[in-house]
Amino acid sequence: MELTKRQEQIVEIVKKDGPITGEEIAGKLSLIRATLRPDLSILTMSGFLEARPRVGYYYTGKTSVNLVAKVIQKIKVGDIKSVPIVVRDSANVYDAVVTMFLEDVGTLFVVREGGYLEGVISRKDLLKTAMGGSDLHQMPISVVMTRMPNLITTTPEEPILMASKKLATREVDALPVVTPVIDSNGEEALKVVGRVTKTNITRLFVELGEGKM
Fold this sequence. Notes:
With about 210 residues, the chain is of the alpha+beta class. The protein has 2 domains: about 60 residues, Arc Repressor Mutant, subunit A (Orthogonal Bundle), CATH 1.10.10.10; about 130 residues, Roll (CBS-domain), CATH 3.10.580.10. The protein is about 45% helix and about 20% strand. The chain is built from 9 helices and 7 strands, in the order αααββααβαββααββα. The strands form 3 sheets. Strands 3-4-5 form a 3-stranded mixed beta sheet. Strand 4 and strand 5 form a beta hairpin. The longest helix has 13 residues. It is elongated, with a radius of gyration of 26 Å. The termini are close together.
């Protein structure tokens, strides 16, 4: 978060002279205690300062970077996930190209009946196939998609920091957000419940920077 000039002055005073009472801080700034009450509340709630009864305010040692990191560590994938863009496993490659174009996304999740994850298709996969000169109408989507165990997924409960690391290390644009379930055949499956993308991450950092989270 970005502090006002007066809040920065308060933090510097508490760093130097803390523990110090609100009245003493106000005196050093030539203000009355009531004027500082909102600033002291913000600094306390944000974690920059702590207040002890009959003792006063003292500096916690936390910086803006520390506080932002603490906030990020608490955010889960489920907090920022978006609606998944999927295609059925019975589709052909042409269907996938059209879906990707209409939805304006770079990654499609291939699902079977019930919404269970079967594979992932990237823009690069489709481009490579199209350049090969194959008949896209006749080619099953299963031929070009990436399957398990080569898929990387995330869950609604996973920290967004961990999901971000997966996006970076695997150099992919999106991850399917899944929930482990038992399908109608009594077998373990992954139900697609969302997606997390580089755009989601970027939007998150913009909101953090604007103090909206």
